[in-house]
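Morning run. Coffee first, then this:
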Amino acid sequence: MAETTAVNERRGIPAAAFVEDVQIYLDQLGLDVNSTLAFLQERLQQYKIVEMKLLAQQRELQAKIPDIEKCLDIVATLQAKKGTGEPLLADFEVSEGIYSRARIEDSDSVCLWLGANVMLEYSCEEASSLLTKNLENAKASLDVLVGDLQFLRDQVTITQALLDVIMGNAPEQVFRLKENLATKGILPVVTVARVYNWDVHHRRQKAVVGASGSAEDA
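And here it is:
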């Protein structure tokens, strides 16, 4: 029987190996309990660093998408006004907190900031096409980031639960965490029970050994 459930990484994020038999897991690593705990804690720290980076990218995209949508609305308004003979009155920001009103006559082009202090002039049709493509890419990237964050949080939960089992802390809470993962289809329910049972069995063995030692001393 395989020692762990088969898992894959996601976009460079390593998946946490869910352990079916903790004792076999320790033996295969060739590490003592303290070294294994140190390894898992280091992995948790790596997950946290990745999470911070992903959250920063998510915030950037969440701020970028409304800006693109606003630019698309402006281009659409210019196109709608074209040929009507009616000028467009608009307030634009001169500097932070300072605005000026502009009167825009029929215009066939707009200027778009591309970043790095670069601005290019496009026809309204070209600008609309470019902005639409950028909006689609930004939304797709945001969806991928959301999936990455969910995957990452699942790996943190699995790793933290394994830490708790090895340390022998709060087995009931660990079982609830594992059960929650199982309902999401991340872990088989049978595996959940195995880890919980391993912890209970390990505790009972320690208690029996301790009781035997006390009886012999007496």
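The CA atoms of residues 65 and 139 lie 7 Å apart. Good start to the day.
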